[in-house]
């Protein structure tokens, strides 16, 4: 049996990445939303810091995402769910869902290799240049900075 601290970390990670084990339609949509968020972060790094973002945050490498998903599932998710399901049989449906989605991502990766792209989400398809104003506007036009931790606004009177 795993030490309690390790088991706790494994369970937290399993919960964090659980979208990878959900039905394909949910998993694919979630992956698009996460990619959208990562691409925004990569755009900020490129525009504000003049840095090359890591591949998973680089909109210019969006067609590599299916392969990255395959790697993520094979290296992180499958070993995690396999280890947990050996101790807790009720985790096996997550392992099975993860395996099914791995096959879907592999198929998409093959399609990309044949010259097709995997993403049809409009925002992700936009090139970086078209996002510059949107990204900068979100940062510079935010009229109210976030409240410091522990300071809560007074209730309305």
Automatic annotation (TrEMBL):
Any single GO BP term: signal transduction
GO molecular function: 3',5'-cyclic-nucleotide phosphodiesterase activity; metal ion binding
Pfam families: PDEase_I
Name of the protein: PDEase domain-containing protein
Limits of the PDEase domain: 1-112
InterPro entries: PDEase (IPR023088), PDEase_catalytic_dom (IPR002073), PDEase_catalytic_dom_sf (IPR036971)
Keywords: Hydrolase, Metal-binding
Gene3D superfamilies, alphabetized: 3'5'-cyclic nucleotide phosphodiesterase, catalytic domain
Claim: Hydrolase is one of the keywords in the record: yes
Source organism of the structure: Cherax quadricarinatus (Australian red claw crayfish)
Sections of the chain in a coiled coil: none
PANTHER family: CYCLIC NUCLEOTIDE PHOSPHODIESTERASE
Binding residue positions for Zn(2+): 16
């Amino acid at each position: 049996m795993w030490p309690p601290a390790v088991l706790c970390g494994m369970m937290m990670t399993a919960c964090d990445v659980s979208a990878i084990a959900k039905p394909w339609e949910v998993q694919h949509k979630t992956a698009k939303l996460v990619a959208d968020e990562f691409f925004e972060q990569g755009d900020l790094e490129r525009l504000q810091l003049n840095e090359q973002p890591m591949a998973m945050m680089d909109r210019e490498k969006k067609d590599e995402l299916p392969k990255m998903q395959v790697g993520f599932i094979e290296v992180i998710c499958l070993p995690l769910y396999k280890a947990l399901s050996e101790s807790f049989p009720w985790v096996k449906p997550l392992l099975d869902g993860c395996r099914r989605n791995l096959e879907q991502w592999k198929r998409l990766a093959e399609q990309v290799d044949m010259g097709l792209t995997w993403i049809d989400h409009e925002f992700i398809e936009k090139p970086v240049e078209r996002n510059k104003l949107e990204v900068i506007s979100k940062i510079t036009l935010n009229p109210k900075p976030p409240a410091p931790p522990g300071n809560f606004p007074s209730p309305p009177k």
